[in-house]
Amino acid sequence: MKFKLPLLLLAIACLTMGAAAPVRLTPVKIAEGVYMMQHSGGSGNATVVFTNDGVVVFDFAIDSADQTLAFIRKSTDKKVKYLITSHSAGDHATGSMHFRDDKPIWIGTKNQIHDFQMQELKDFNERKNSTDPRFAAYKLGDLGQPDIGIEAPTTIYLGGLTFQITPEGRGHSTGDLTVYIPQKRVMLMGDLLDTEIHLGQGESGEIFYSNVKGWIQILDNIMTRHLPVDTYIPGHGPAHIGRGVKDLEEQKRYFVVMRDEVAKMIAAGKSLEQIEKEFKIPQEFAHYTRPERLRNFYKLFYNQLMETGY
Ligand SMILES: [Zn+2]
């Protein structure tokens, strides 16, 4: 999801924080040479993987990827060889220009590229041409697009590591991909996994895409692989180092439990408006942050339940 707030909410947020808090990415060591750049405001995380032959960067937002690059420059004299984007949303795929001096190869799914051309580019250029100071970073360069659009599992080999890139299909967005690095026992999930935070609807240029049934199917598909993964790195929220598949199980349960709650309210005759007002977050997810992100999901659950019955 994007870093977008309705103006009123933004004003309230600014008042409560004194001023808009600057975006901060904090490197968190996941495994030797693998660092998640955790977003201070709960927006999109990035991941950096160092190898002897160069660096791989997974996800980059225009307003924070300069911090990812600074961390890389401080840590190694090797160049950024590959960029990989989990999906086309602004908080994951708009900052490629920060890395242009290294001339990396950018890999995404073919669907992501379609979303870029059809929606995200227009949104990006509107922000670029805006005088709103919140969008100042957009003057840094063009949106660009992946050099390679994949439609099937693809493997890159770099510096002794294997990066297994899998287009997982439609779930959070139209074309989420994951990256499994067996030597590091990690898997980069993008927004297919958020931790301790309510889920965001996949979105590109303000068009919303998430499909709960597809998302659950993807989580099932990944769990069925029984990979020896210590840590699934989330697109938003903190990494649970060493928690393994339990994070995926919790993510799936979130959908099932929340959707069931909405189904019960529909059965009791509640309208969407009543559900939005009266919904009580189940205890096991009460500690999740950013409840404002639920609003899109009430609508999604409601419409999908009314339309298809599952
Ligand atoms: Zn996101």
Lay out the secondary structure.
Layout: H1 7-17, E1 25-31, E2 34-39, E3 46-51, E4 54-58, H2 65-75, E5 80-84, H3 90-93, E6 105-109, H4 110-128, E7 148-150, E8 154-158, E9 161-169, E10 176-181, E11 186-188, E12 203-204, E13 207-208, H5 212-224, E14 231-233, H6 246-267, H7 272-278, H8 294-308
Parallel strand pairs: 4-5, 5-6, 6-7, 11-14
Antiparallel strand pairs: 1-2, 2-3, 3-4, 8-9, 9-10, 10-11, 12-13
Helix pairs in contact: 5-6, 6-8
The structure holds zinc ion.
Structure description:
It is a single chain. This protein has 310 residues and is of the alpha/beta class. It has one domain (7-253): Metallo-beta-lactamase, Chain A (4-Layer Sandwich). Helix content is 33%, strand content 22%. It is built from eight helices and 14 strands. The chain is globular, with a radius of gyration of 19 Å. The two termini are 24 Å apart. The structure holds zinc ion.
List keywords for this structure.
22% strand; five-stranded mixed sheet; Metallo-beta-lactamase, Chain A; binds zinc ion; seven-stranded mixed sheet; 8 helices; globular; single chain; disordered N terminus; alpha/beta; 310 residues
pLDDT < 50 stretches: 1-19
The main sheet orders its strands as 1-2-3-4-5-6-7
Fourth CATH level, the homologous superfamily? Ribonuclease Z/Hydroxyacylglutathione hydrolase-like
Tell me about the largest β-sheet.
7 strands, mixed
Quaternary structure type: single chain
Please give the alpha-carbon distance between the first and last residues: 24 Å
User: Strand tally, please?
Assistant: 14
